[in-house]
Write a structure and sequence with these properties.
This protein is of the alpha+beta class. The protein has 3 helices and 7 strands. The protein starts with a strand and ends with a helix. Bound molecules: adenosine-5'-triphosphate. Adenosine-5'-triphosphate binds next to strand 4, strand 5 and helix 3.
Length: 139
Amino acid sequence: MVDERSAGAVLFSNNEDPEFLLLHYTAGHWDFPKGNIEQNESETQAATREIREETGITDVEFLDGFRNKISYKYRKGKRLVEKEVVLFLARTETKEVKISHEHIGYAWKKYDEAVNQLTFKNAKNLLASAKEFLQKSAS
Ligand code: ATP
């Protein structure tokens, strides 16, 4: 059973030569903007809200046809939490980022550097899928 469900996005700017937004979580990892889906909220509503709260970015255009999931388990005290994160692919024209207290930094990175900087393998794989999707939709 899934205990936590979050939604977020691989957010990119610069269509021609995309840069991807990564956030430095206080727990130490680098990941995409994302957060808990609240009751009565759709996945894209949650992703839009989390991006706004975590980055201050409000112009977010979701690309149709990209919806990808990652799942993991982590320990919260004595409890093992099963978590599922749905990630969309979204374009923005805003480069200015205002992070919240939930994060300690951010970075816009081109693909190779972004893959290196992401902490977890499942997030790296997801970024590879997003890049492929962008390449296919450009051709
Ligand atoms: P959210 O941004 O969804 O509100 P959060 O900031 O509360 O989440 P997570 O980013 O899910 O928390 O991190 C919780 C724990 O899970 C941390 O210990 C982190 O190291 C671990 N974790 C985060 N992402 C992954 C992943 N993709 N694979 C494995 N473990 C992860």
